Amino acid sequence: MPLPLTEKTEDVSLNTPPPPVTNESEKKEALPTTPKPSAKPTQEPTTKSGDYTNVYITYYGWYDNSPSGKNIAYPHKKYSASIHDKAGGTGSYKDPITFATDRDLYKPGTIIYVPYIKKYIIMEDMCEGCIENWQDEKRKHIDIWIESKDSFEDELYQCQRKYTRSSIEVELNPPSDRELNKTPLFNTSTGKCL
């Protein structure tokens, strides 16, 4: 039985309608013998695939870590979900930067993508201010490590303030192919902020 002339499927369309048919023998000749695929409509690429949420973001480094230095609360040697034993990371998906927060907000090993700095981060440390903000106000607060050492204290604090945001969107459970900025936020050799 021939298809009605108005019927189309997603993958197949009739290129030109056949002329009107007058008898049965002409009906078979009127329809194309092989359907031709039509061009599928192009879809906009999806830019969002993870879960998005707004958070308060602060930064910490060598001097305001407690105690001073690179120690973290959830090192890999004790928490398998973490990947570092000390604060660090380059910001790639395979080597995200350490961040601190309340473990009731994000469990150790949680990976987040931060679009405005174009870096991935991983929960590996505790932040008392973040815990207070989450427990008292239900305000999501994360504190991101800035690579640093025992030098350029004033420059480090200025850089931390530069990147702090009171509310900004981040992506939880991000894919591994987000845009990256491979330059460190802080140059430990020169004291320059990105």
Short description:
The chain is an alpha+beta fold and 194 residues long. It is built from three helices and eight strands, in the order E-H-E-E-E-E-E-H-E-H-E.
Extended strand count? 8
Structural class: alpha+beta
Give Rg in angstroms: 28 Å
Strand content: 15-25%
Distance between the termini: 70 Å
* Quaternary organisation of the protein chains: single chain
Question: What is the count of DSSP helices, taking H or I runs of 4+ residues?
Answer: 3
Region (Disordered): 1-49, 174-194
GO molecular function, one term: carbohydrate binding
Organism: candidate division WWE3 bacterium GW2011_GWA1_41_8
Protein name: Ricin B lectin
Can you offer a commentary on this structure?
- The protein is α+β, with helices and mostly antiparallel strands and 194 residues long.
- It has a domain at 51-172.
- Helices cover 14% and strands 23% of the residues.
- The chain contains three helices and eight strands; from the N terminus they run βαβββββαβαβ.
- The protein has helices at residues 24-30, 128-137, 153-163, and strands at 12-13, 36-37, 51-60, 97-101, 111-114, 119-126, 141-145, 165-172.
- The strands form two sheets. A six-stranded mixed beta barrel has the order 3-7-4-6-5-8.
- Strand 5 (111-114) and strand 6 form a beta hairpin.
- The protein is globular, with a radius of gyration of 28 Å.
- The N and C termini lie far apart (70 Å).
